[in-house]
């Protein structure tokens, strides 16, 4: 048998092996340990600041790209990465220089959140994008929001990059089984900061 024919047969075997295999990473767990997600403010969030008995100091501001906000009497307060309650206490501390015993409430709307808490979908999704994490969000919820996978996606070789305990792990996800075969056992829980990677099929 010629060397050229052997090379062709070897390439075909490699492609069949790659195309037929499932995810090469440890499977993502269907459920994850219980945790209480706290919404953290991020750039672009709309923040409604209410100062009790001081309507002139109450206003709605947008968190700047640098993660800070400015309100009357309070300049350049870091907001990104803080909960609404934490931001309210920080503003109270700053206002205490000017008014006695300020009481501040912070209400967030137009949720964006910090980048580190967003879920990112890259690769062969119909609409790759970053999403704000919502409590009890699963990979099926994510797929609905991004319009599913493309015809060129190798869904069963998808993976999730997840930061846990200071280290990054890569977990396999069976998107094709979930979306094309309706196998709900392939639906897995998402965590804030997850990156879902959907590779392209080899053929």
Descriptive overview:
The chain has 203 residues and is α+β, with helices and mostly antiparallel strands. It has two domains: 46-109, wza like domain (wza like fold), CATH 3.30.1950; 118-203, Roll (Outer membrane lipoprotein wza fold like). It is 22% helix and 25% strand. Strands 7-6-10-8-9 form a five-stranded mixed beta sheet, with helices on one face. Strands 2-1-5 form a three-stranded antiparallel beta sheet, covered by helices on one side. The protein has a two-stranded antiparallel ribbon with strand order 3-4. Residues 3-23 have low confidence and may be disordered.
Kindly summarize this structure in a few lines.
This protein has 203 residues and is an alpha+beta fold. Helix content is 22%, strand content 25%. The protein contains 4 helices and 10 strands; from the N terminus they run H-E-E-E-E-H-E-E-E-H-E-E-H-E.
Total domains, how many? Answer: 2
Query: Quick one: overall form?
Result: elongated
Q: What is the C-alpha radius of gyration, as a whole number of Å?
A: 24 Å
The CATH class assignment of the largest domain is Alpha Beta
**Which fold name corresponds to the CATH topology of the largest domain?**
Outer membrane lipoprotein wza fold like
Task: Name the quaternary structure.
Answer: single chain
Spatial arrangement of strands, main beta sheet: 7-6-10-8-9
Beta-strand residue percentage: 25-35%
Discrete helix count? 4
Would you identify the regions where 5 or more consecutive residues have pLDDT less than 50?
3-23
CATH architecture of the largest domain: Roll
What's the end-to-end separation, in Å? 26 Å
């Amino acid at each position: 048998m010629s060397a050229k024919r052997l090379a062709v047969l070897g390439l075909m075997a490699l492609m069949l092996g790659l195309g037929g295999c499932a995810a090469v990473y440890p499977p993502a767990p269907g459920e994850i340990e219980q945790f209480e997600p706290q919404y953290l403010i991020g750039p672009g969030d709309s923040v409604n600041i209410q100062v009790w008995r001081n309507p002139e100091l109450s206003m709605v501001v947008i968190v700047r790209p640098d993660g800070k906000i400015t309100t009357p009497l309070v300049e350049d307060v870091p907001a990104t990465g803080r909960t609404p309650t934490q931001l309210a206490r920080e503003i109270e501390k700053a206002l205490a220089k000017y008014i006695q015993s300020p009481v501040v409430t912070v209400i967030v709307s137009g949720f964006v959140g910090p980048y580190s808490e967003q879920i990112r979908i890259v690769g062969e999704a119909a609409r790759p994008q970053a999403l704000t994490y919502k409590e009890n969000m699963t990979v099926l919820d994510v797929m609905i929001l991004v319009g599913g996978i493309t015809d060129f996606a190798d869904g069963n070789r998808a993976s999730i990059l997840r930061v846990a305990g200071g280290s990054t792990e890569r977990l396999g996800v069976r998107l094709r089984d979930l979306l094309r075969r309706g196998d709900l056992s392939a639906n897995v829980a998402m965590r804030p900061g997850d990156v879902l990677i959907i590779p392209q099929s080899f053929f």
